[in-house]
C-alpha cells in the first residue's frame, strides 16, 4: 500500500536541532514520572478546558504513553517520510477526541517549559529554539490533520 504524501509548510529541522531535542528529552526521560505529572498539571492550568477531554481522572497511563510516543517521534525526526504519515494519523485521532487545532500551540508552550525544568536551566536559547522548531514541524502535521478531518468542534464540550 502506498504511503500518503503529506505536504506541510514547516522547514526541515537541522541536524543540530534534532540532536539537541533528542539529548534534552533523554535527560527528561529519566525523571518522566515527575515531569509528565508536571506537564499535565500545567496544561490544565493554562488551558483548563482540555482537562475534560481526558476520559480518566488518573492520567498515569496517559503520562506513560505521552513520553513513550514523544521518544519515538523524536527518534523519527530525521526520517520525515515515515514520521509524517504517523503524525497525521495521530492528528486525525486527536480530532476525534475533540482536540482543537489551537491546542497544539498550548501543548508546545507547556512542553517546552517542562523540558526547561528537566534541564534545570531557566534559559538556554539554542535548546528552546530547537524545541520550538521541532514542535513547529510536529504540530503543523497534527494541526493539518485536525483541520482536514472537518470535525465540528462547536459540538464538543471543550
Ligand atoms: C505532539 C503532540 C501530541 C502527542 C505526541 C500526543 C500523543 C498522544 C497519544 C499517543 C495518545 C493516544 C492516542 C490513541 O489512543 O490513538 C493521545 C491521546 C490523547 N491526547 Fe494527545 N498528543 C499530542 C497532543 C495533544 C494535545 C494538543 C491535546 C489537547 C489537549 C491532546 C489530548 C489528548 C487526549 C484528550 C487524548 C485521549 C485521552 C483519553 O483517551 O482519555 N494531545 N495523545
Summarize the entry for a quick read.
The protein has 158 residues and is an all-alpha fold. 65% of the residues lie in helices and 0% in strands. The protein has a single domain, classed as Globins (Globin-like, Orthogonal Bundle), CATH 1.10.490.
If you had to describe this structure to a student in words, what would you say it looks like?
- This protein has one domain: Globin-like.
- 27% of the residues are buried.
- The protein starts with 14 loop residues before the first helix and ends in a 10-residue tail after the last helix.
- The protein has 158 residues and is mainly α.
- Helices cover 65% and strands 0% of the residues.
- It is built from six helices and no strands.
- The protein binds protoporphyrin IX containing FE.
Identify the CATH homologous superfamily. Globins
Radius of gyration: 15 Å
CATH architecture: Orthogonal Bundle
Number of domains: 1
Ligands bound to this protein structure? protoporphyrin IX containing FE
Could you tell me the mean pLDDT? 90
Q: Helix share of residues? A: 55-70%
Reading the helices and strands in chain order gives HHHHHH
Number of helices: 6
Structural class: mainly alpha
Task: Look up the CATH topology.
Answer: Globin-like
Number of strands: 0
Runs with pLDDT <50, length 5+?
A: none
Largest sheet: none
Shape: globular
Strand content: under 5%
Please give the CATH class: Mainly Alpha
List keywords for this structure.
binds protoporphyrin IX containing FE; Globin-like; 158 residues; single chain; mainly alpha
